[in-house]
Amino acid sequence: MLNHEPLAQNRARTLFDLIAIGLVVAILTIIHYTNYHYDVDYHILLQFAYYLPVIYAAMRFGPAGGIISSFVITLLFLPLMTHFQHTLTPAAKYTQWIEVGLINVIGWLTGFLTEEERKAKRKYQLALTVQKELVEKLKREGLERARLEAEIRQTERLTALGHMSAGLAHEIRNPLGIMKVSIQLLAQEKVEDEVVTEYCRVLLEECERLNRLVSEFLNFARPKELVRERIVLAQLLDEGVTLIQPALGQHHIELKQVRNEVAEHVVEVDPDQMKQVILNILLNAIDAQGEGGVILLEGVLQDGFVGFAVSDEGSGISPDALPYIYDPFFTTKEKGTGLGLSVVHRILDQHGGKIATSNRSGRGVRVEILLPFI
Question: Could you give the 3-state DSSP secondary structure of residue 226?
Answer without folding.
Answer: coil
